[in-house]
């Protein structure tokens, strides 16, 4: 899972990136792209690792991407959005703090300003493609009959200043994936608050229309640099129930409809990330394409049933272990062993 961090100038994107990736900003590298890879905290992996004592324990991972500046923040060209087009979702950081040199926060206006930039960027891409299709038509070249009406619908939607993520049949259309429309990407709106403010700002119905949450960026940035013992005291002092990293990862999983399943054994205990409603045969490909190709059956045991039984052999005796076919939808927490032959 790759999440692109974006926002207007002064919103605190770098601070949020540091907090989420537990890294330290390199003062002289503001123009460079930054990438941070974080393991997804999962107590189930910890417990399974203790149970199997494997040679390796591998957690699911999430990648945060903070693009460097490409030109002026106020006048961006289309290339500005190119770096985040391959991200799975966007984290839109919105300033909700004041201070010396800052105007009074206007989170609702700031959100709209950047969201409309996304819409405009996609409108330009869609119109250029439509021009190309028209040129091809005049030259006698046949176009994909499904692509043209979809593009026309995109343009109509974007001209109404509506981001494509609000129209699922356009955002998820296979024929449009190659365009990597930025306004079609799922978005988590992250209000960057003052240290002593953990409340959502008054932004009207925005919290009902978008997936929103609060981060106290500077506070969480400090927390990310602390030792485990210091961090625990810090969490208690400021009444933080979970770090920003944990909270944002959970919301990101929900936003993208992601779940985790596990493979276990003496060699390795590992968490794998898939989308909800993924069939067993397609989940197999996440591990290796040969497993999908030679799929026979999936041996499945839920994490909860394993914990209730206490061991794999006992779960078999209790009848909670089962064999599933290709079309079985893998559930969050399933422990899966694949039978395959290639």
TrEMBL record:
SUPFAM superfamilies: P-loop containing nucleoside triphosphate hydrolases (SSF52540), TGS-like (SSF81271). PROSITE patterns: TGS (PS51880). GO terms for molecular function: ATP binding; ATP hydrolysis activity; GTP binding; metal ion binding. CDD domains: TGS_YchF_OLA1. Its cofactor is Mg(2+). Gene3D superfamilies: 3.10.20.30, P-loop containing nucleotide triphosphate hydrolases, TGS-like domain. Keywords: ATP-binding, Metal-binding, Nucleotide-binding. GO terms for cellular component: cytoplasm. It comes from the Bacteria. Pfam families: YchF-GTPase_C. Residues 257-340 form the TGS domain. This is GTP-binding protein. It comes from Desulfonema ishimotonii.
């Amino acid at each position: 899972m790759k999440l692109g961090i974006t926002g207007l100038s002064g919103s605190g994107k770098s601070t949020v990136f540091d907090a989420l990736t537990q890294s330290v900003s390199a003062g002289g590298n503001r123009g460079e792209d930054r990438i941070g890879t974080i393991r997804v905290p999962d107590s189930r992996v910890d417990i399974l690792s203790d149970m199997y004592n494997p040679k390796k324990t591998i957690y699911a991972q999430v990648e945060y991407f903070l693009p460097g500046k490409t030109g002026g923040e106020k006048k961006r060209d289309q290339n500005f959005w190119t770096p985040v087009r391959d991200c799975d979702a966007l984290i839109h950081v919105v300033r909700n703090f004041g201070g010396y040199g800052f105007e009074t926060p206007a989170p609702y206006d700031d959100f709209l300003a950047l969201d409309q930039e996304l819409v405009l960027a996609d409108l330009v891409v869609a119109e250029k493609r439509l021009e190309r299709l028209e040129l091809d038509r005049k030259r006698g070249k046949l176009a994909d009959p499904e692509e043209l009406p979809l593009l026309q619908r995109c343009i109509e939607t974007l001209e109404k200043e509506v981001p494509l993520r609000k129209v699922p049949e356009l955002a998820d259309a296979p024929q449009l994936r190659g365009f990597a429309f930025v306004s079609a990407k799922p978005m988590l709106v992250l209000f960057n608050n003052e240290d002593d403010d953990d409340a959502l700002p008054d932004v009207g119905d925005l919290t009902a229309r978008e997936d929103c949450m609060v981060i106290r960026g500077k506070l969480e940035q400090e927390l990310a640099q602390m030792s485990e013992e210091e961090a625990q005291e810090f969490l208690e002092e400021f009444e933080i129930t979970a770090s920003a990293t944990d909270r944002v990862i959970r919301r990101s999983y929900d936003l993208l409809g992601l779940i985790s399943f596990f493979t276990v054994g003496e060699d390795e205990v590992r968490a794998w990330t898939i989308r909800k409603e993924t069939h067993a045969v397609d989940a197999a490909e996440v591990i290796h394409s040969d497993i999908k190709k030679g799929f026979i059956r999936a041996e499945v045991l839920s994490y909860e049933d394993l914990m209730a039984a206490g061991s794999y052999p006992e779960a078999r005796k209790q009848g909670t272990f089962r064999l599933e076919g290709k079309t079985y939808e893998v559930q969050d927490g399933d422990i899966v062993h694949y039978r395959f032959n290639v």
